[in-house]
Specification:
Blueprint: H1 3-14, H2 20-26, H3 31-43, H4 56-59, E1 63-71, H5 76-87, E2 92-97, E3 104-110, H6 113-123, E4 130-137
């Protein structure tokens, strides 16, 4: 992947509805090589898909809850059971395996505190092997980006 591929990716992260013509103009390529690069990035799994960014509140799911999970045991079987169980919970948008005092961090969305309570009592606690659940409610969103920063920000010079 070269700098032109990264420009293509950044442009698509900022606006996934660009036509190939518009994208080609933004990255200084003609349309045919631009399309070839996009298809190669898709084929290689770098571009993993396209999605619409939806306003959570207007959609009716205004509550974000960050949930820390600690397992009773960190055995391969316990980890697998938790990860399989979490796949079936639509309210969980993101799940990260963590280091430190928690094993997982989840981002859960809900339309009300009552619906979150129901999710917690009836779905999350039904997963075997959970020792501790800690919920933190987001009061507001300060920043959200969909485009990665240029790799130059990460140079170790």
């Amino acid at each position: 992947m070269d700098a032109t591929d990264r420009k293509i990716i950044r442009c698509l992260q900022e606006n996934g509805r660009l036509t190939n013509q518009e994208l080609a103009e933004r990255v200084n390529l003609s349309p045919s090589p631009c399309l070839r690069r996009v298809r190669n990035l898709e084929r290689d799994g770098v571009l993993a898909g396209y999605a619409a960014i939806v306003d959570q509140e207007r959609y009716g799911l205004p509550i974000n809850v960050f949930v820390s999970i600690r397992l009773e045991r960190q055995t391969d079987q316990a980890i697998r059971a938790f990860e399989e169980g979490i796949q079936n919970l639509d309210e969980v948008l993101e799940c990260y395996l963590m280091t430190g005092s928690r094993d997982y961090l989840l981002r859960v969305i809900s339309h009300s505190l009552k619906s979150y309570e129901t999710f917690l009592r009836e779905k999350l606690t039904a997963i075997e092997g959970i020792s501790v659940i800690e919920s933190s409610f987001a009061l507001g969103q300060v920043k959200r980006r969909t485009a990665f920063p240029p790799l130059a920000h990460f140079d170790e010079t």
